[in-house]
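Incident log, support desk, overnight shift.

02:14 A customer reports that sequence design results differ from what the structure should imply. Their input is reproduced verbatim below. On-call engineer (initials T.W.) acknowledged and began investigating.
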């Protein structure tokens, strides 16, 4: 089955046999797709410099089943340039999509959100805005794949969330007032102001940033199950290495 040209990004690429590669794509029209790019690992491979993460592409493939054969790949625009540690955030986005988005399940709105997030991470203020950009992408990713957060009301009684109240957020349910869960440790403790800030996309203070990161990580980990997130571990290792260098005056 021949596909017409569609827009997409490379999420991951790994060697396959002698000169080919297995490539995980994220496309607007077809969602996540796995293809074989034949000959791309050779010195004269036609797509050697094209099939790179963070670059918008025009793509086509052929075949049936779960693994297709790539037949065309062209640049659809300049790549998003993610400098330094911000590149790890790009890899983190890609890893979340691979682990949480089913194959052949189109999510056009999520595709657009991903493209916008890459642009935000490549902007002049990317380092300053990185944490906010990641939190909002995590929120929207969960929404698009059917695990959207409940941020504006209590789960048990539907009462609107109060900014000055404290809640326990249970991944499969939502926010529960601390008074209703006395003696229980059922989820992630979070202030109502953080839930409302996250709903509005306005993470402007340290507490909202800290609590929203903890909340989103707890919910994502719940849906990831036992699958580890390698990009998180890599960032943590690099941060620990940086601290070690600093302590030794390097």
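02:41 Re-run completed on a clean worker. Output:
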């Amino acid at each position: 089955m021949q596909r017409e040209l569609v827009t997409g990004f490379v999420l991951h690429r790994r060697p396959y046999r002698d000169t080919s590669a297995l490539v995980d794509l994220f496309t607007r029209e077809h969602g996540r797709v796995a293809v074989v790019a034949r000959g791309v690992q050779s010195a004269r491979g036609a797509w050697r410099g094209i099939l790179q993460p963070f670059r918008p592409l025009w793509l086509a493939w052929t075949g049936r089943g779960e693994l297709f054969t790539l037949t065309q790949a062209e640049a659809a625009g300049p790549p998003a340039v993610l400098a330094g540690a911000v590149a790890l955030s790009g890899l983190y986005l890609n890893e979340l999509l691979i682990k949480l988005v089913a194959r052949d399940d189109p999510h056009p709105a999520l595709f657009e959100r991903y493209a916008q997030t890459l642009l935000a991470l490549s902007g002049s203020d990317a380092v300053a805005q990185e944490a906010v950009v990641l939190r909002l992408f995590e929120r929207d990713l969960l929404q698009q794949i059917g695990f959207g957060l409940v941020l504006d009301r209590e789960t048990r009684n539907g009462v609107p969330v109060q900014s000055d109240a404290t809640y326990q957020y249970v991944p499969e349910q939502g926010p529960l007032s601390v008074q209703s869960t006395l003696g229980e440790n059922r989820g992630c403790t979070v202030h109502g102001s953080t839930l409302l800030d996250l709903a509005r996309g306005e993470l402007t203070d340290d507490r909202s940033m800290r609590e929203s990161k903890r909340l989103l990580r707890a919910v994502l980990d719940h849906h990831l199950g036992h699958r580890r997130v390698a990009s998180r571990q890599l960032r943590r290792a690099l941060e620990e290495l940086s601290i070690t260098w600093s302590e030794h005056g390097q």
